[in-house]
Design goal:
- By secondary structure, the protein is of the alpha+beta class.
- It has 3 domains: 2-67, no CATH class; 72-157, Bifunctional DNA primase/polymerase domain (Prim-pol fold, 2-Layer Sandwich), CATH 3.30.2250; 186-260, no CATH class.
- 33% of the residues lie in helices and 14% in strands.
- Helix 5 (186-202) runs antiparallel to helix 6, helix 5 (186-202) runs parallel beside helix 7 (230-242) and helix 6 crosses helix 8.
- The longest helix has 17 residues, at 186-202.
């Protein structure tokens, strides 16, 4: 599948403008994208030569800045290591396998599939089923691919970290008084964040819309009083990413909610 210059997936095809098709396939029953153009991220990935060379896909390939693939569809799992610290951790903690240099670090590729999850540790993402990873071409990397070990599967079962730093996430500074909400009690903020997390987790379809609405609700109540912290925002992003949203989708939804509120 083609990627934009910023390594994000291509936008909607003309048949799916503004997600009139419902966005990505239902996350509980994943399947290939049925649209003419590659607009549904991992679900658009294909090895069908007729699709890849079709006129519908040609505009996307002309604009593409990179190529991605669906690891789960290829029967593999990618441990995406974003920095030197993450690489050092992997060398001490994970079985040796095929290693491919990436833009910021390395991809460690194992044979076998599992659920994908971001931020399983600082600088470490797991990309397999219902996810995509950058394809750096045949013959790249070194080493022999090992079977997916239990230690990697266990990472996805752990509680996620608060998440990587998010551009534009710190939108307000804490006021005098340690960032306590001036018009409600601190418990009110906690209930609001917990409720937003729950609503996102319970969304069975239309996850884009559900995430945006919850971000909008939290920002409308607490976006101007200074009580929101990076930890609160991280919890919302983590809930959205656990439902399959990409970091970019989270950032876009957050930005759109701020814009709607004139913030």
């Amino acid at each position: 599948m083609p990627l934009r210059e910023d390594k994000g997936p291509m936008g909607n095809c003309r048949a799916c403008q503004k997600n009139i098709c419902g966005g990505r396939p239902n996350m509980k029953t994943p399947g290939p994208c049925a649209c003419a153009a590659p607009c549904h991220a991992w679900a658009a990935a294909t090895i069908d030569p007729h699709t890849l060379t079709s006129a519908a896909w040609a505009p996307a390939w002309r604009r593409a800045g990179a190529v991605a693939y669906h690891p789960g569809g290829a029967g593999v799992t990618v441990v995406d290591l974003d920095n030197a610290d993450a690489i050092a951790w992997a060398r001490q903690s994970l079985p040796i396998t095929r290693t491919v240099p990436s833009t910021r670090g390395e991809h460690w590729i194992y044979l076998g599939t599992m659920a994908s999850r971001n931020d399983v540790r600082p600088g470490v993402d797991i990309k397999s089923l219902m996810s995509y990873a950058r394809w750096l071409g045949p013959g790249t990397g070194t080493g022999t691919m090992a079977l997916l070990p239990d230690v990697v599967r266990a990472l996805a079962a752990k509680e996620p970290t608060a998440g990587r730093p998010v551009s534009g996430a710190t939108i307000v500074s804490a006021p005098a008084g340690g960032g306590r909400c001036p018009h409600r009690s601190p418990a009110y903020l906690e209930r609001g964040i917990a409720m937003a997390e729950q609503r996102i987790e319970e969304a069975s379809e239309g996850i884009h819309t559900a995430v945006y609405r919850m971000f909008l609700a939290v920002l409308s109540a607490h976006g101007r009083c200074g009580c929101l912290t990076d930890a609160h925002i991280g919890r919302l992003f983590t809930a959205a990413q656990a439902k399959g949203e990409s970091l970019r989708h989270c950032e876009d939804a957050w930005t759109n909610a701020r814009t709607t509120l004139g913030m």
